[in-house]
Write a structure and sequence with these properties.
3-stranded antiparallel sheet; mainly beta; 0% helix
Length: 107
């Protein structure tokens, strides 16, 4: 039908960045890994029950790798206080696969 001159109200909800709404609450759920706090002041905690060591990669808003390291299967803390304030993407990899979460550093 022709919509010329007609007004239509539409409510649109945008959740995350191209991820399903069910995964927004806990994007690392498939790996059983949790990253907190978010926003962070510099120290973030990674906790979980991974299968073996957890490889962590942190990239900045431009996709540049700014941190890479390994944690025990139960997790640990990362000191990102040397990074400037901003948005970062933390990716966790273990034997089950990989998942990621965007975090905000504000210190």
């Amino acid at each position: 039908s022709d919509y010329a001159g007609e007004s239509h109200d539409t409510n649109v909800s945008i959740v995350g960045e191209g991820i399903a709404s069910s995964s927004v609450a806990d994007p690392l759920q498939p790996l059983g890994i949790r990253i907190f706090p978010n926003p962070a002041q510099g120290i973030i905690t990674v906790s979980g029950q991974a299968l073996g060591p957890i490889q962590i990669e942190v990239t900045d808003a431009l996709g540049r790798n700014v941190y890479s390291g390994k944690l025990a299967a139960t997790g640990g803390s990362l000191d990102l206080s040397g990074l400037p304030n901003g948005s970062y993407f933390v990716r966790a990899l273990d034997a089950k696969g990989s998942a990621g979460q965007r975090i905000l550093l504000a210190h």
